[in-house]
User: Fold this.
Amino acid sequence: MNRHIVSAVTLLIIAAFSDSGRASQPVTVLSKISSVKLYTNKAEITRISKIRLEKGLNIIQIDGLPDNLYDWSARGSLPEKYNGKILSMEISRQALLEKRKKKVMEIEKKLEELKDKDADLADDLANIMHQEDFLNSVNDFTKQSASKELVTRLPQTEVWSSTMDFTSNKRKIIQSAKRAIYKKRRDLAAEIQKWEFELTQIAGRTYFSNYKSLKMAVDKNTLSNQVQQYGEFTEQYAQQKGFLDTDTSKIDTEKKILLNIFSAAEGETDFIFTYMIPDTFWMMKYDFRASKKSDEIEIILYSDIYQKTGEDWDNISLSLSTGAPLNIITLPALNPWYLSASKPYKEDFAFAAKSKKEYAAQRQEGAAGMNDFDEAEEALPETSVKESGLSFEISFPLKQTIESSEKYQKKYIKSYNIKSGKGLKFYYQTIPESSGKVFLMAKTVNQTELPWLGGEAQVFLENEYIGKVDVPQTPVSKEKELVLGIVSDTNSKKELVKKYEDTSGVFGGNKRIVYSYKIIVENDSKETREIITMDNFPVPSSEEVKIEIKDLSYSFIADDITKKSTEYAQGIRKFILTLAPGAKKEITYDIVITYDKELIINGLK
Assistant:
């Protein structure tokens, strides 16, 4: 009875050790990118691996993951109904030693093939040289024979002629063959040089130097009639082979996932895992295709995708999110507000005013950049848009392929038609103070399912390309004014007609400056146009400065809503002018500024 118990226990122990040995060796499987969720600052990659699990503990290894993935973002799962559990998931980096070795061997094999071709061409060239020597000997013999015949007998000119024709034709063939061989050898030399340089880049100069020495030794031995001897190169050969296993200075790295999975039964299933990766983002781009003839505007949305993650996204399901996930989310701190008093220093007002002007001038530097993009791609089936958490998600209906590269890749999202009377109004706007150009504008409401992200728009009017404009961030249902272009048949200008300064005693200790302005707007088009004309009146920052607007010839907009706006408080005024074809209108007014003559006022013109 005891003997049977001992045998059973022994079998259990053997089985346990057998299972333990099987699970201790990881099974390496492949994975494929199935979908990508692209944010405005990074991407979430989803991969799928087909894995075969034994009953009990399984160790699975997935290689070939990009080196720049965020370890903290990795998540893995098994199908919900699968009777198993992920016990642990570890991400680590590994050097691609085998990959480099394989690449080095491929290059060395390529060099061998190229040098064999070069040797064949060298043999062909040697044979041609022998043929050329033979022709030279025929020519020499013919010369000698001809000299004797001229002395001893009647010359055989027919024989001479046929010999000359033979040698001449044969020499042409030989010279043509030589040139062809020289060309092939030059091309081969360039190819060999390219691959030798590639070998140096991958394996290093030390390895390449050993490789060249060993190759010369092999070539010398193989050309010898004696038995080949390599004893003196054994150490050099060992250094060369060991170098690939130890030097990691020029080796790429990748990441791998090591999984411990317990399975209740043997079977095959999918392992799905996701991770975040940088070096990729998308921006929203637009085409505005406006038509005043049909009173409508078509807004076409595109995504401009930058993808340089190091791996291609081949035939994947792609979705775009308007969100921008943060690696670390912190609540901003609110600092206390302290007030302190100190005695002012007396300073020269003129010097202070000059310093302020210089400081303001230094802050007026800036630059803007533009990128050119291809025309719109062919229309695709409708994309879907849904609200997801704190952002919107756009899903493409078809599989997409996006290569990892430096270039931006443009993808069509969706188009929307907005007609006049349904959230669209065309009008014109000008700022005579600046350039006097008149802009065609469109006031519209974002009637799409998603917010317009800040981006660049190409503008077309009646199918004619006008230019590019910047589109600001616009939430859904928010009204926005869009710039559609500059019209050439309407213009405006602002003139300073007169400037008058009075410091006489009538006004006591005050100084008065009077500016007389005239604004002219001309409509040279063949249609009646409503033109919003913008102007700026001075705004005092101190009660010691009094400003009056006198003799205004045309009223500006001054309803309750306008008066409450920031623009109005900043002195910006809007005049609505309706001009018939060929008409011209003028707005005149005086600005009277009164202040203590001892003060220095910044901002005067």
Remarks:
- The chain has three domains: 17-95+255-278, 98-203, 281-325+374-596.
- Helices lie at 2-24, 97-152, 157-203, 205-223, 234-246, 349-362, 560-563, 566-569.
- Residues 1-22, 227-231, 345-357, 362-380 have pLDDT under 50 and may be disordered.
